[in-house]
């Protein structure tokens, strides 16, 4: 597996007005935009060719991963080599390509836009607002399962039953491949009472290229959009090359940077674990908590 697709065409309405003129993927997690963490994850997994699916007002994404000679020259002349290296890093991570989605027809449509670029080979999909802790990689395991089964693989995460209605949900049975489950059904955002499990689909996929043929024939579903979940449901119950869908359960740390609270948790977690910000931030947090304790004791 060499290629990755990163859908990043969403409007980011949950973060308005901050995202009125700035893509939600460019919201900073300490000093790097959220989207850079996603690209770095793809690079760590050995992916060498990344296509980003963008939309209107997303030019900042392309600018961020491009060279900025004037800024680099200024930093070099000032001798600020640390900042220079950080700026240059984002433009040398991986071979990046960009495609416009055009009409906002859903995640399935965004993935389908990458068909000509991906061709006839398995590929990864990383959603641009899902941050996976770099110590908890899952793409390698998913690629292994895909190679052994010849099907498609989704990342699953256990959630509280009442939370399942905001996710795609998997109906699973045991699998012949260690570390995976066979998926026999997928439901997009079910009501908790109708959910077949508490296993939610999160934003990592390793897909057989047959998914493109299925997406091309998938009618609009929930919300009037072409749902990737619906196409995967078709593959889950089909036969022949590229059929079958499997799940790998993710048990590490994951943040949804499209959700305000989860985004703040991502910022705090990264800041606390960094040597340049962690110690002072912990000290400040303790100062903030101490008056709260005193007030409660009083």
TrEMBL record:
Its EC number is 2.7.7.9. Belongs to the UDPGP type 2 family. Gene3D superfamilies: Spore Coat Polysaccharide Biosynthesis Protein SpsA, Chain A (3.90.550.10). It is an enzyme of class 2 (transferase). It catalyses: alpha-D-glucose 1-phosphate + UTP + H(+) = UDP-alpha-D-glucose + diphosphate. Keywords: Nucleotidyltransferase, Transferase. GO terms for molecular function: UTP:glucose-1-phosphate uridylyltransferase activity. Transmembrane segments: none annotated. Residues 3-270 form the Nucleotidyl transferase domain. This is UTP--glucose-1-phosphate uridylyltransferase. Coiled coil: none annotated. Pfam families: NTP_transferase.
């Amino acid at each position: 597996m060499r290629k990755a697709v990163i859908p990043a065409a969403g409007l980011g309405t949950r973060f308005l007005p901050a995202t009125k003129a700035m893509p939600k993927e460019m919201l900073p997690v300490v000093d790097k935009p959220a989207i850079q963490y996603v690209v770095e994850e793809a690079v760590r997994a050995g992916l060498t060719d990344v296509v980003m699916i963008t939309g209107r007002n997303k030019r900042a994404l392309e600018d961020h991963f491009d060279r900025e000679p004037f800024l680099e020259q200024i930093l070099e002349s000032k001798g600020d080599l640390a900042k220079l290296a950080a700026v240059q890093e984002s433009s040398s991570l991986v071979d990046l390509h960009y495609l416009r989605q055009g009409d906002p027809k859903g995640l399935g449509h965004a993935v389908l836009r990458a068909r000509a670029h991906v061709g006839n080979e398995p590929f990864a999909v990383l959603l641009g607002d899902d941050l996976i802790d770099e110590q908890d990689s899952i793409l390698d395991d998913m690629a292994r399962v895909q190679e052994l089964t010849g099907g498609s693989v989704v990342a699953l995460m256990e959630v509280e039953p009442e939370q399942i209605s905001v996710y795609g949900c998997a109906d699973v049975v045991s699998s012949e491949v260690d570390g995976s489950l066979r998926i026999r059904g997928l439901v997009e955002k079910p009501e908790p009472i109708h959910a077949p499990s508490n296993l939610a689909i999160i934003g990592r996929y390793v897909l057989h290229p047959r998914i493109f043929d299925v997406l091309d024939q998938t009618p609009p579903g929930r919300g009037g959009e072409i749902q990737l979940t619906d196409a995967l449901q078709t593959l889950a119950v089909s036969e022949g090359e590229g059929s079958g869908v499997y799940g790998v359960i993710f048990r590490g740390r994951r943040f949804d940077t499209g959700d305000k609270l989860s985004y703040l948790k991502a910022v705090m977690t990264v800041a606390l674990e960094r040597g340049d910000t962690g110690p002072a931030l912990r000290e400040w947090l303790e100062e903030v908590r101490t008056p709260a304790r005193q007030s409660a004791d009083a």
